[in-house]
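Bump. Still looking for ABC transporter domain-containing protein structure tokens.
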Amino acid sequence: MNFSNSAALLAVRGVGKTYETGKKEIRALSNVSLEAKEGEFVSIIGQNASGKSTLLKILAGVGMPTSGVFELRGDASYMPQDHALLPWRTVEGNLLLPADIAGASRGRAQEKARALLSAFGLEQYARLYPAALSGGTKQKAALLRTVLHDHSLLLLDEPFAPLDALTRIEAQTWLLALLEKTEASVLLVTHDIREAIFLSDTIYVLGSGRIKEKFDVPIPRPRRHEQLRAPEALELEKRLFSLLAPV
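Sorry for the wait, here they are.
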């Protein structure tokens, strides 16, 4: 399929994924289509086993679709559900891992990593190992590593799922501040309705491997958590919940 007329940074058309287990086929995704524009924050919400992580892995190149196509204009960085920090590397060493793998200039990557750590109040953790960090700090370090190399699209798989409620709220606000310093688009998967509303410009609802509906988030930026109490936010939350609630 030709996407040349699409203005989207990411265009997904009719993507499906089927797994074979013995004589049985399991359909994880079916005819999924969506877009993400430049600078847009897009969330995909759905219950567990709805196909969210499967789709993100396909877009990250970790898996292959059974059907359909997608096009990304640029490069993507992928953060899986587990922060995936290497325990034998310091925080700074983990941030430098992609540059080391790519054989890029370590000096330039180190300079940028230290600048990011300082800008977001994490410089005191630079020489510590992941085992010494709180859950929230581990997730922040993993997010910094994801944005470090100026890729066009960030693929984030439930980055705040391991955190308690208060730490999660703080980390969400921290992520938005981090994104203000980049021009990256974001595709986030989450099962948290309020998180999706707070962070996103656009929300896709995924259920049983299919896109059920698409919503624009009617909340202006910059975002504050108090905005989630606005009537338009509460109405959107109600509509999303009705689509996700078990029948």
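DSSP finds eight helices and nine strands in the chain.

Edit: fixed formatting.
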